[in-house]
Amino acid sequence: MTYRYSKILCVAAMALFATLVAFGNITDYGTNYAFVHHVFLMDSIFPDSSIHYRAIESPWVHHAGYVLIILLEALTAVFCWLGAFRMLQAMRLPARAFNRAKRHAVIGLTLGFLTWQVGFMSIGGEWFGMWMSPKWNGVPSAFHFLATLILVLIYLTQKDGELDD
Fold first, then answer.
1. What does the domain layout of the chain look like in residue ranges?
2. What does the pLDDT read at residue 102?
3. Which residues in the chain land under pLDDT 70?
4. Rounded to whole angstroms, what are the CA distances from 133 to 44, 45, 119, 124, 125?
C-alpha cells in the first residue's frame, strides 16, 4: 500500500508543478513571452555563431509557440491530476486494476517530458542556440524538469503487486 501511495503522491507533485508553471505563464504572460520572443529572435546568442539564419522574427509565430508551450504544460497538468485521481480510486483494487489506472499519469508524465526535452532542450536549446544566451538560457531549468518527470515516470511504470504481497 505504501508504494501505491508513494506513486500517487509523486504523480500529484508533478501535476502541481505543471499546474503552477502553466498558471505562471498565463498570469505573467508578458514576462514569460519575452523569454520565448528572445529565443526565437536569437538576439543574444554568440555574435559569431553561424546559426543566426534560423531566427524567426514574426511576432505571431512567437505568440503561437508560446501558446503551444502553455497548452502542453496545461495538458501535462490535467493528465497528471487525472492520473493521480484514477490511481487513488483504484488504490485498494487488485494490482491489475491499479496498474491500468496509471494510464493517464503515464500520458501526462510523457507529455511533460516531451515538452521540456523536445521543446526546450532540442528546439530551443539546440535549434535556436538558447544555450549560448547568457540571459535567455532555459536549458538548465528544462533539464531539471525533464529529469524529474522521467524519474517519476520510470518509478510509476514499475508494476505493482497485490496488496497482500
1. 2-156
2. 97
3. 165
4. 5, 5, 17, 11, 10
> Helix (H, G, I), strand (E, B), or coil: what is residue 22?
helix
Q: Answer whether 116's CB lies under 8 Å from 146's CB.
A: yes
Q: What is the b/e burial string over 99-108, where b = at least 16 CB atoms within 10 angstroms of the residue's CB? A: bebbebbbbb
Give the model's pLDDT for residue 135.
93
Q: Do residues 163 and 2 touch, judged by C-beta distance below 8 A? A: no
Q: Render the burial of 25-62: b for 16+ CB within 10 Å, e for the rest.
A: beeeeeebbebbbbbbbbebbeeeeeeeeeeeeeeeeb
Can you tell me which residue has the cell 538560457? 137
pLDDT, residue 161, reads 85
Letter for the amino acid at 75? L
For residue 152 the three cell numbers come to 517519476
Q: Tell me, what's the pLDDT at 165?
A: 56
